[in-house]
Design goal:
heterodimer, A: ABC transporter involved in vitamin B12 uptake, BtuC, 2 strands, globular, B: Rossmann fold, Rossmann fold, 6-stranded mixed beta sheet, 19 helices, about 35% helix, disordered N terminus
């Protein structure tokens, strides 16, 4: 990779003044990132009218905590989507990674026969992350190395990994998790749950990496035009592989957080969550065709989705209607972001 | 990248920017380049011309280090070319702006310019402000007026080319190959591109300019090199090579192909096709009439609008205006089913894209347009389908073991025969052939063109849309289009030079 350009350029003729061009296009580009902010403000106003509780610190923390785990999966999916691929298996990794860790460390004497008690408790977190990395590496092997269709590969992996979790747990829920597994999901740092800190930190890191590093920009280049990216010297295969691994590790971490919060790993953990994840990413302006979207946009997408759900809960909508409303919320949020974003969602 | 030292520059000033000698390159059994070569001197704009298959693209891929020559040597500034694996070294010497864009539309112009070599600050983080400033400097240095902050997808074709040229220059290359840069540009865009080329030449940039349009070469180039049949034919200053001589060098007067039989014109035959004031979305215009049993050629180079016009006639594209009447029936604009119904048979331009379903059998492909002929009460009869397909296989001498062979297993020539068979399956009154012999071998070419002779005897009217002289030789008359307009009509008996010149927009009588 040539680090050279700047030197040659500055050695050349003195630059003419920068084109006094319209800053309008830039402004619009920036605005696209903020497209959902008006919608978020609007929902906040409606929420505060519906219930005075809505804008209270407790409720805001409640919203942020309830979204923190899914938000991390959205971040993971965003990374994959920007490269032009998709990873459906994240929702199963979300359940399997903490499931395997629990399986290996939980004592069957305390849990009516569940678990193996093979590893000391301290190993649980590394195992969670390792499972994530292995799943991502295997996805990469099939998609990048063998050139299989990413959608179908990860759909197969979604089913396989879910089946694996059901198999090792006998369809039951792991409980009596060690403290090392529950800490991150249940601890409070400076009065705010650790999972909120973690998700916000990861998003901040995501914004920096995708916006300000060559590796991050390589994701956009590959999603926009893989041939051109290769021609520019980007190792497209390696970058794709890394993106899939990072995404799976993030999903595993998110699974660890929710297991810690609930102090259990049900065999259905994360099942069906992928639809919400895709919806949040698309609402947040991430293109399913790759090359377009931002981490910040994805964050506003999740935030909008969970704020609307929270407002509905506060408004006293019966729980039986939750699924119907979740779907409606996704459609409405899509329409809202289409109107405020102004561009067809591809 | 090394910064060039002034002394270095002086020492190399009289060396040619690039010199390729005795280059031979084979692809399988075809000889793409046969002991050919080119010498491009510093500061000149050098044209490379030749008809399709003359070896231009192969030479370009060897000059840019994408392929190795089997034989021969390439030298830049008098020194041997770097090894093929050293992409950076190649990029410092030569760059090619291809017709296919290597710009990423979703990223900004600035980022495209510095893709994977972004300006970085502490911690390896990209410094966007510096990157934008460098991009602005780069474009300002080469006077490209484009806002670097806009997404590259908003650029016009010519702006995109300017940005690609600037990017190539930023790697240090001062020798740029332009591969048919004018193909997608309109007249004003071409003028702006030429102004840019002249300006860059004044700044010491050397160009190798590839174009099918001869008048562009006379307008912009100093030297011209002609390739024909994988060989170097001539290199001369443009001013000293007349247009007829240039056309002659391209076509090779010594090479004459056999001609189809000709019989007197049917003067009172009924008019089968009548196209009135047809205007395509690209702006090409045409009116014409053909009679039963008449073969009419529509000739023209790329960008002449001949294909667009033909696609509008058969309903593949919706015309902006005008009417198409086939045997007294006015076709619904932009409707293929209506055209088929009226008795139009079509061989589309690109058989892979529009002509065939490769995984289906010959039988299914041939009968695709005529479900009515092989079915009863809405169900398709496989027996009738195979019978029809067997006829086609026999008539067109398709080399295949039977109607069930998937089309994907056939050679290019036989695939094209299947496409022709499909066009003929409906016994058309009007047969429209768009580049019918593109990429097929000589034997298949003969069969395909022989079929035309046969169907015209049955009273079918045939339109041959092509720039291949062999295709046009079977026509009773040839209409020549240039930049969307009908410029000449040539009766049977034209000379190659005359027709090629007309297609290139040159009038031999006024040189």
């Amino acid at each position: 990779m040539s680090e050279t350009l700047s030197t040659t350029r500055s050695a050349a003729t003195p630059p003419a003044s920068a084109p006094g061009a319209s800053s309008r296009s830039l402004a619009i580009a920036r605005l696209r990132d903020l497209a959902l902010v008006p919608a978020i403000v609007a929902v906040a106003i409606v929420g505060s009218i519906v219930s005075p509780v809505f804008l209270s610190t407790d409720n805001i923390i409640n919203v942020l905590q309830s979204m923190s785990e899914i938000a991390i999966v959205v971040l993971a999916q965003t990374i994959v989507l920007i490269t032009g691929k998709m990873d459906l298996s994240l929702e199963s990794t979300f359940g399997l990674a903490p499931g395997i860790a629990a399986w290996l460390v939980v004592d069957p004497a305390l849990t009516r026969g569940l678990g193996l008690d093979l590893l000391p408790d301290a190993w649980s977190v590394p195992v969670v992350l390792l499972v994530g990395a292995l799943v991502g590496a295997f996805n990469g092997l099939l998609i990048v190395r063998f050139g299989l269709n990413g959608f179908i590969v990860t759909l197969g992996m979604l089913i396989v990994l879910r089946g694996l979790l059901t198999g090792i747990s006998g369809g039951q829920t792991f409980f009596m998790l060690p403290d090392s597994m529950t800490y991150l999901g249940s601890a409070t740092w400076v009065g705010v749950p650790a999972s909120i800190w973690l998700s916000l930190l990861l998003f901040a890191a995501g914004i920096v990496v995708l916006g300000y590093t060559r590796a991050g920009r390589a994701l956009y280049a590959i999603g926009g035009n893989a041939d051109a990216a290769r021609a520019a010297g980007i190792r497209t295969d390696r970058v794709l592989w890394m993106a899939l691994i990072v995404a799976s590790v993030l999903a595993a971490l998110a699974g660890l957080l929710i297991s810690g919060r609930l102090a259990a790993v049900p065999s259905a953990q994360g099942s069906g969550a992928i639809f919400q994840v895709f919806a949040a990413a698309v609402i947040g302006g991430v293109s399913l065709n790759g090359g377009k979207g931002s981490v910040f946009g994805a964050f506003t997408g999740v935030l909008l989705l969970f704020m609307i759900i929270n407002v509905l809960t506060l408004a006293g909508v019966p729980a039986q209607w939750t699924n119907f409303l979740n779907g409606t919320v996704i459609l409405v949020a899509l329409v809202v972001s289409r109107i405020t974003g102004g561009k067809a969602q591809t | 990248m090394s910064v060039e030292r002034p002394g270095d520059e002086l020492a190399r000033a009289d060396q040619p920017v690039v010199e390729a000698v005795n280059i031979t390159k084979r692809f399988g059994s075809t000889l793409a380049l046969d002991d050919a070569g080119i010498v491009v001197r510093r500061g000149e704009t050098h044209a490379l011309v030749g008809r399709n298959g003359a070896g231009k693209s192969t030479l370009v891929s060897i000059l840019t280090g994408l392929q190795a020559a089997d034989n021969g040597a390439v030298a830049f500034d008098g020194r041997p070319a770097p090894p093929l694996g050293d992409r950076d070294a190649w990029r410092r010497r030569v760059a090619c702006v291809y017709q296919k864009s290597t710009i990423i539309g979703t990223l900004t112009v600035a980022e495209n310019l510095f893709l994977n070599r972004h300006a970085r600050g502490p911690g390896g983080l990209i410094r966007w402000s510096r990157l934008r400033r460098e991009a602005e400097q780069l474009l300002a240095e080469w006077s490209v007026e484009v806002d670097v902050r806009q997404p590259a997808s908003t650029l016009s074709v010519e702006q995109r080319q300017f940005v690609e040229i600037a990017r190539a220059l930023s790697f240090g290359a001062r020798f740029i190959i332009l591969d048919e840069p004018t193909a997608q540009l309109d007249g004003a865009g071409i003028n702006r591109l030429f102004a840019r080329i002249r300006q860059l030449r004044a700044q010491g940039v050397t160009f190798l300019f590839i174009s099918h349009h001869l008048q562009e070469i006379y307008e912009i180039c100093d030297q011209v090199t002609v390739f024909r049949d994988a060989r170097h034919i001539v290199t001369a200053p443009v001013a000293r090579l007349s247009r007829p001589a240039l056309v002659g060098a391209m076509t090779g007067e010594d090479v004459t192909m056999p001609e189809a039989d000709h019989r007197p014109l049917v003067g009172d035959a009924p008019v089968l096709l009548s196209v009135r004031d047809l205007v395509t979305t690209s702006g090409a215009e045409l009116s014409l009439e053909t009679r039963a049993g008449e073969v009419v050629g529509i000739a023209g180079g790329g960008g002449s609008g001949k294909v667009e016009v033909a696609e509008a006639i058969v309903g593949l594209a919706r015309p902006v205006g005008g009417t198409v009447v086939v045997d007294g029936r006015t076709l619904r604009p932009g409707s293929v089913p209506d055209a088929l119904d009226a008795g139009v048979g079509l061989v589309p331009q690109d058989r892979h894209r529009e002509g065939l379903v490769p995984l289906l059998s010959i039988a299914e492909n041939v009968t695709m347009t005529v479900p009515g002929r092989i079915g009863r009460r809405g169900l398709i009869s496989p027996a009738r389908r195979d019978a029809l397909a067997r006829d086609t296989i026999a008539d067109l001498a398709i080399k295949a073991s039977g109607p069930q062979v998937p089309v994907a297993d056939l050679s290019g020539g036989n695939q094209q025969k299947v496409v022709m068979g499909r066009a003929l399956a409906s016994d058309p009154k009007l047969l429209v052939l768009i580049t019918p012999t593109a990429g097929v071998d000589v034997r298949s070419k003969q069969t395909l063109l022989g079929v035309v002779e046969e169907v015209r005897r049955r009273g079918t009217s045939v339109l041959v849309v092509s720039d291949e002289l062999d295709d046009l030789r079977i026509c009773d008359r040839v209409l020549v289009m240039f930049q969307g307009r009908l410029v000449r009509e040539m009766p049977h008996g034209w000379s190659d030079n005359e027709l090629v010149a007309a297609m290139e927009g040159v009038d031999l009588h006024h040189v």
